[in-house]
Fold this protein.
Amino acid sequence: MFKKTVKYTDYNDVEREETFFFNLTKAEVLEMELSTTGGLSAMIKGVIDAKDTPQLIKIFKELVLKAYGEKSPDGRRFIKTPEIAEAFSQTEAYSEIFMELATDDKAASAFVEGITPKGLEGYSADK
């Protein structure tokens, strides 16, 4: 799970500081890997190698919104719905996070590492 605290100004000109959570389960990562021809990892590597920035930004946006969710009060669930992702995408906090990830390689790398569950070695589209 990746936790990110963000300071931003909302649309009422109120300064806020909130913590947001991002996570992908093993099942989600495996589904993304197996539903992409050649595998998601290989596809992303190809986009990076080709320096296809527009496609890379599109992938990154999809990852951020797919990984965003809200923890249940008891901590047993990480709730992710299209409505929750859309509501988050309409905030200045999302904008701040997206801008940081799109312009800072280290932040982007830490984000991807943070949302990726451990123990997926050996699972790939070419198996």
